[in-house]
Amino acid sequence: MKPTAKISCRNLWKIFGPDPEAFLARHNGAPRSEDFRTAGMVGAVCDVSFDVFPGEILIVMGLSGSGKSTLIRAISRLNDPTAGNVLIDGQDLLKASPEELVDLRRHKMGMVFQHFGLLPHRTVLSNVAFPLEVRGSPREERESRAMEMLKLVGLEGRETHFPRELSGGQQQRVGIARSLAVGPDIWFLDEPFSALDPLIRREMQDEFLRLQKMLKKTIVFITHDFEEAVRLSDRIGIMKEGRLVQLATPEEMISRPADDYVRQFTKNAPRDRIVSVGSIASAEVAGSAGDAIPASLKIGEVAARVLASDRPIAVVDSDGQTIGSVSRDRMIAAMFPESRP
Ligand SMILES: Nc1ncnc2c1ncn2[C@@H]1O[C@H](COP(=O)(O)OP(=O)(O)O)[C@@H](O)[C@H]1O
Ligand SMILES: [Mg+2]
User: Fold this and answer.
1) By alpha-carbon position, which residue is closest to atom 27 of ligand 1?
2) Which of 12, 14, 15, 16 to mutate to test the pocket of ligand 1 (most atoms within 8 A of CB)?
3) Which contiguous run of DSSP H or E holds residue 326?
4) Burial of 332 (0-12, 13-18, 19+ CB in 10 A)
5) Is 43 in the pocket of ligand 1 (CB under 6 A)?
6) Residue 281 contacts by C-beta under 8 Å, 6 or more apart in sequence?
7) How many CB atoms lie within 10 A of CB 283?
8) Report field, pTM of the whole predicted structure over 0.70
9) Is the pLDDT of residue 186 over 80?
């Protein structure tokens, strides 16, 4: 049985412009892109539906202006959606009272932003303790919790520094520690590493995965870098002009991009490390089971063998049953899709 979703969005709309509700009603709840242009309205989030399951990392991608930030702001109710539903643990956020909303944001959700958003005149410790201060925790309690979070992100010893005394990567670690201070089970990250140098960025991705292994939060993470998305995601959602055009695992997305816009994102993906042999095998049974390749291996792991073989090689499932075969031609087509005749 599928687990209950932690976050559920149903037909979510966020429209900017005068009287967005009336605009939506005038178009029977389903305006098209032309309708927005004609009326001079902005469809920042258009009819978006998806679930995020407990402990899952959902990556949201899309060009600048495609509605990624607006989407997570609508889910966390930093803005009011124009229409639709957002369920958190089955509770309808749009029906929550202002008090319930504040409570939810202060206890259940953590946010990390691209430009860190630290308070410049407060120390590192005080920045991390800030959400707890807002919540009214006593000083001793919030500072000890903040220390704990700083240890978690490897910033022990920096607590009395000010943000400007830290590198970009360290400042974002403070941002991460702060977002975790309230012990949220939902974690929103809006391009958290986009302002960092590639090497630091890579280090922060590893750090993020290390934390998640321990903390097992439910995560919506925005990036515009497909390689980052592949490294971090369970599933990736791609947005275009406010709409979610595809939501799939990296492998599904690369193997079957919904349209050219998605294909463009996946173009430079490290296919050899993402696509599995099973997904490129033909149903034709060929080769001897003795030399068979497990379907779950990534194509990069067996490319040399397949390319060196004159005949197709058998592919087997996890029970050792032959499910088909993979030929040299198939391998080349999978690794170099641009070379297709
Ligand atoms: N407060 C606002 N008022 C009017 N338009 C906005 C507002 N916030 C965002 N938009 C518009 O909504 C669209 C989506 O923006 P955004 O969610 O920030 O995109 P992304 O995060 O993908 O770059 C853009 O066209 C943007 O200009
Ligand atoms: Mg954004």
Assistant:
1) 65
2) 16
3) strand 322-326
4) middle
5) no
6) 295, 315, 323, 324, 325, 326, 330
7) 7
8) yes
9) yes
Architecture in CATH of 272-339: Roll (3.10)
Domain ranges of the chain: 7-108+184-269, 272-339
The architecture that CATH gives domain 7-108+184-269 is 3-Layer(aba) Sandwich (3.40)
SS3 call for 114: coil
Q: Which two tokens stand for residue 170?
A: 């360290």
Looking at every residue in the chain, the average pLDDT score rounds to: 92
Closest CA to 222 of 65, 22, 92, 89: 65
Q: Would you say 44 and 242 are in contact if contact means Cβ atoms under 8 Å apart? A: yes
Q: What is the pLDDT of residue 161?
A: 96
- pLDDT at 16 (0 to 100): 97
Higher pLDDT, 100 or 159: 159
Question: Which pairs from 123-127 meet CB under 8 Å and 24+ separation?
Answer: 123/159, 123/160, 123/161, 123/162, 124/150, 124/155, 124/158, 124/159, 124/160, 124/161, 124/162, 124/163, 124/166, 124/174, 125/150, 125/159, 125/160, 127/163, 127/174, 127/178
What are the start-end ranges of the H helices in 96-138? 98-107, 124-134
Task: Tell the residue nearest (CA) to atom 2 of ligand 1.
Answer: 16
Residue 239 alpha carbon, nearest atom of ligand 1: 22
Helix (H) or strand (E) holding 87: strand 83-88
Residue closest by Cα to atom 10 of ligand 1? 44
Contacts (Cβ under 8 Å, ≥6 apart) of 23: 15, 17, 31, 39, 41
Q: How far apart are CA 276 and CA 62, in angstroms?
A: 25
Residue 287 has pLDDT above 90, yes or no: no
CA–CA separation, 82 and 18 (whole Å): 12
Q: Is the pLDDT of residue 8 over 80?
A: yes
CB distance 67 to ligand 1 below 6 Å: yes
Cβ of 173 closer than 6 Å to ligand 1, yes or no, is no
